[in-house]
Amino acid sequence: MDQEGGCVNLAELTALGGVIPSAPQREEITWVRDTEEGEKEDSFFIHVVQLAYGDVHTISAENSTGKDQRRVYTAQLICAAVRLGDDASERLTYEQAYHLHPGLGAAMLSAVVRVNPSLRVKKKAEASGGDMARTGAARNRRANSRRSKAKSHSE
After folding, report:
1. Please, what is the Cα angle at 132 between 141 and 88, to 5 degrees?
2. What does the pLDDT look like over 109-149, one tens digit per residue?
3. What span, in angstroms and rounded, lies between the C-alpha atoms of 43 and 67?
4. Within a 10 A sphere around the Cβ of 150, how many other Cβ atoms?
């Protein structure tokens, strides 16, 4: 890649990690739950795929356009990113993700965010129930706007 104003090509962009691989990553999660015998901790592996821009945009658009406002964003993320089974061939439906035990859902969502760090948001946004993708998109728009203004002032 030419650092002096040249344009990146697709091979370079892919090498930089700009094109998301489709292979899932194996992630260990721990789920603590109450049983008749007391608190039980289970640890096991799931597979998590990196979500592409289009995946996150589709989920965000569904939530913001009213297409199905009853859908829970975090359940949609789990449904889109989590794969089960040794060969990662099993997927949860939205309904299954929605009906997960809260502790298990939180453990799965944590794995989704580990594999998809761009979904991380500030604690304030999480506490207010803010949409992770919208928060990230707004942050990216602000950064791009600052870069664009800086570039136009330097020209």
Report:
1. 120
2. 999 999 999 887 544 344 444 444 444 445 555 555 554 45
3. 36
4. 10
In sequence order, what are the beta bridge partners of 32? 41
The residues pairing with 38 across neighbouring beta strands, listed in sequence order, are 35
Residue type, 38: G
**Angle between helix 132-154 and 73-81 (nearest 10):** 90
Residue 91: what are its φ and ψ, rounded to 5°?
-125, 145
Whole-structure pTM value: 0.70
Return the bridge partners of 47, or none: 26, 83
* Of 59, 79, 77, 78, residue with least CA distance to 69: 59
| Type of residue at 138 | A
